[in-house]
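We give the entry.
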Amino acid sequence: MTDSTARVDQPAPTAPEAQNAADTAAPADPMAVLAKEAADLKDRLLRTLAEMENMRRRTEKEIADARVYGITAFARDILAVADSMDRALKALDSEIRVKAEAGVKALLDGVELTERELLKVLEKHGVARIEPQGQKFDPNQHQAMFEVPDPSVPAGTVVQVVQSGYKIGERVLRPALVGIAKGGPKAAANDPAANDNAGA
């Protein structure tokens, strides 16, 4: 009687316990374990290789950007020198230049030569002047300072450059300060492709 009572009081094994007992009772197939481990290692290796390739590409892009844009701050400072030379050359009109003495003409020629050399050096390092005169206004490269009533050119055309702009690589280093035309015909109205589309 006591033995039967003792058997009833013992709880039945739970499902995890039964599974653990089965696992210890029947050892796992070593080939299956090794195959699973090899698949896990292969997956980790492929992920690591993909991460390394992405890092290599990012590093190459950062190095290329550093080469192109590393002189940005220096180039901005040099633009002040280019502006000063440009203003100095524009201060004298062509009539005064013609009447100037030989020494003054030689000085002006020297300043022009220096300005050309400065621009050439800037271009060598990826800095190029933006030449917006006569182009359609582009807010990404130009900064409008004022509007000029001029019905002879399409509205939104750059008709005056107050200060030259510069780009370094594909980025704008400094936008060009410009005056744009207003009162003229819309630029799209003069576009033959737009007229063809309108006729269609």
Notes: The longest helix spans residues 30-69.
